[in-house]
């Protein structure tokens, strides 16, 4: 009973330190409840891309769990530092470390009980609200219903039980390994003035430049995927090293400038920061990394959501696209029959016959040789499709002519202005290089794989060329002739769905009657629904992650100011006793805070600027090609975050001032 009273009293007396920790921990419980409810919701199985959606939320839940563990331990470390003096006093008054351990266990148990009681209740309410928001974002139907499962709640309870038990073990180790006298001085124990570490500074600068270089020099989205986490890791390492080491060197340079250093506000702030810069630098680096993660996550997901229609249109220049092994004439008849059956009046229809892709590599864009069509082989390769001049003229409504040794190149890629090219050893004259065909989107994103259509005089020239110069294609049985059809038409959603359903049925029947010829049909309305569901989920995840990082940033800043305010209280008290005025105290505080407080967000903005090219290329994979949209989303997020950051600065500077000023 005594230990329970002591634990209860301690929590009340340390209310200013425990209250933000409890609020922040409740927030992480809410986040975990939301993610677990979404993950275990049976309605997830009704999504158009159920497997991808569940994988996305599973990954998101793991990220939130890792964040919860790191964040809780980081904020709790500030608590135990400030509690050491009180624990040392108990130790001197007769409570041995075994009794302190019991008291700490009860304290952690009480906090866990409060956190779980409030966190689970608010998590259930919030998860229902967030479920409705997600449903609105994704446009999902009535099959996607809210379902609160026992597994979700039990998972969160076990997670935080493990976290709080680990915190108790950490507290116990800290108390048991520290002497009573050290405990009494624990909150005021500083560090020796650190030395310059030029080697680590250079390493940090090198890793940061390396991370920046990866982002600004990558050429394709595929490279961006492969190198994204490498660049992120390099930037994180560089940020921590530079904040810890370069900041010390910079402060020592300021100290050597007598005209700057020997002024009251500069003398106090610079000397104080040098004294504990190792810890201070790590805290500032953490704030910077969290700020960068917030800016990157929110700007990219918001851009994805706003540019969703742009992405859909880029992937679907036509309302309906058919890719089949059916002969072109037969495909045309099937589609025209379906159009007549559904009484579609205003319709645009294009079709063509084309040979499937052949991968070829070249060092000069002139001499091409065959390569295997696989992930490794297509790096730096061009995928060629072959078309006859007759199909090209019908498709483009042209009247061009070619000889057997001439061809047209249809491509959006840059080609050398060479009159001739060599394909597998055979020379062809390039009569003309044409941009994208009518069946292709003008804004099709460049994802790093070159592709071109080669137009030959006729089908006979194509077959002869392949048989004589590309025998590997015949041997691999990889040459396929396919027909493609493209339609644009208007109508109500129901009428459009009925037309596509009828067309699918006709294609299926014809395929079965003709030895199951393969076909694939894509419909822009279905793609729009699937895209809305997936990108809406991404935005939802972005908001959850963004809120997590913002709260983490705010709480780390709060504890940083609280910890340093308690450390600096005695120094400012002595200085005020010897004549430092309240006005000078306030000016000194603002000088100290301003010198380091805005550094993380400035560096985070620099990180975001260098990350912009990589983010842009990654968004290409989702079909978002509007660079101005990304710039607008990025600037908006940076401005909004800066406003939040200013509010945090205003509040925490008041807390620091109240702690250090002697009235």
Give the overall form. elongated
Largest sheet: 7 strands, mixed, barrel
**Which range does the strand content fall in?**
5-15%
Structural class: alpha+beta
Number of distinct beta strands: 10
> Rounded to an integer, what's the Rg over CA atoms?
33 Å
Low-confidence stretches: none
- Specify the number of helices: 21
Helix content: 55-70%
Side by side, the strands of the main sheet go 2-3-6-7-5-8-4
What distance separates the N and C termini? 39 Å
Let me know the average pLDDT.
78
For the record, the count of structural domains works out to 3
Membrane topology: Multi-pass membrane protein
Subcellular location: Cell membrane
Protein name: ABC3 transporter permease C-terminal domain-containing protein
Family: Belongs to the ABC-4 integral membrane protein family.
């Amino acid at each position: 009973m005594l230990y329970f009273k002591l634990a209860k009293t301690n929590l009340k007396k340390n209310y200013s330190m425990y209250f933000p920790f409890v609020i922040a921990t409740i927030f992480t419980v809410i986040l975990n409840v939301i993610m677990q409810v979404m993950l275990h919701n049976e309605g997830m199985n009704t999504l158009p891309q159920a497997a991808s959606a569940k994988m996305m939320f599973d990954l998101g839940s793991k990220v939130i769990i890792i964040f919860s563990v790191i964040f809780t331990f980081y904020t709790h470390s500030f608590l135990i530092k400030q509690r050491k003096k009180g624990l040392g006093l108990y130790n001197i008054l007769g409570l041995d470390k075994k009794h302190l351990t019991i008291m700490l266990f009860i304290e952690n148990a009480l906090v866990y009980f409060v956190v779980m009681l409030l966190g689970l209740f608010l998590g259930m309410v919030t998860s229902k609200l967030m479920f409705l928001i997600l449903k609105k974002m994704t446009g999902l139907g009535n099959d996607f219903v809210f379902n609160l499962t026992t597994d979700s709640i039990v998972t969160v309870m076990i997670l935080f039980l493990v976290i709080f038990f680990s915190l108790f073990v950490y507290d116990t180790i800290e108390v048991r390994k520290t002497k009573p006298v050290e405990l009494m001085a624990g909150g005021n124990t500083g560090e020796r003035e650190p030395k310059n570490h030029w080697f680590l500074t250079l390493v940090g600068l090198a890793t940061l430049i390396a991370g920046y270089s990866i982002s600004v020099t990558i050429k394709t989205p595929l490279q961006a995927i492969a190198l994204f986490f490498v660049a992120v890791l390099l930037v994180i390492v560089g940020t921590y090293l530079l904040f810890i080491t370069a900041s010390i060197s910079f402060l020592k340079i300021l100290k050597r400038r007598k005209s700057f250093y020997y002024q009251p506000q500069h003398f106090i702030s610079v000397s104080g920061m040098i004294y504990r810069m190792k810890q201070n630098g790590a805290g500032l680096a953490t704030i910077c990394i969290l700020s960068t993660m917030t800016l990157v996550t929110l700007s990219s997901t918001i851009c994805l959501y706003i540019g969703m229609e742009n992405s859909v249109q880029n992937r679907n220049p036509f309302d309906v696209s058919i890719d089949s092994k059916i002969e072109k004439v037969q495909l045309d008849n099937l589609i025209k029959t379906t159009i007549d059956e559904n009484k579609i009046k205003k319709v645009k229809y294009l079709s063509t016959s084309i040979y499937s892709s052949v991968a070829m590599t070249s060092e000069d864009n002139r001499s091409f040789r065959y390569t295997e069509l696989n992930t490794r082989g297509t790096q730096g390769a061009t995928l060629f499709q072959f078309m006859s001049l007759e199909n090209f003229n019908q498709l483009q409504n042209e009247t061009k002519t070619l000889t057997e040794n001439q061809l047209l190149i249809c491509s959006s890629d840059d080609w050398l202005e060479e009159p001739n090219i060599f394909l597998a050893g055979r020379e062809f004259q390039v009569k003309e290089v044409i941009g994208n065909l009518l069946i292709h989107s003008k804004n099709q994103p460049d994802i790093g794989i070159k592709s071109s259509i080669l137009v030959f005089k006729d089908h006979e020239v194509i077959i002869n060329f392949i048989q004589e110069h590309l025998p590997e294609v015949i041997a691999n049985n990889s040459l396929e002739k396919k027909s493609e059809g493209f339609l644009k038409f208007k109508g109500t959603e129901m009428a459009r769905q009925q037309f596509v359903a009828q067309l699918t049925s006709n294609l299926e029947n014809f395929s079965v009657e003709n030895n199951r010829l393969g076909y694939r049909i894509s419909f822009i309305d279905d793609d729009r629904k699937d895209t809305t569901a997936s990108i809406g989920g991404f935005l939802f995840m972005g908001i959850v992650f963004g809120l997590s990082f913002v709260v983490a940033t705010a709480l780390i800043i709060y504890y940083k100011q609280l910890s340093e305010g308690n450390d600096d209280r005695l120094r400012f008290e002595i200085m005020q006793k010897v004549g430092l005025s309240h006005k000078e105290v306030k000016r000194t505080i603002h000088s100290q805070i301003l010198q380091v407080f805005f550094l993380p967000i400035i560096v985070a903005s620099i990180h975001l600027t260098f990350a912009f090219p990589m983010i842009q290329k990654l968004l290409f994979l989702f079909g978002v090609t509007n660079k101005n949209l990304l710039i607008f989303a990025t600037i908006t997020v940076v401005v909004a975050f800066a406003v939040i950051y200013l509010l945090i600065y205003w509040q925490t500077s008041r807390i620091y001032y109240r702690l250090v000023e002697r009235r």
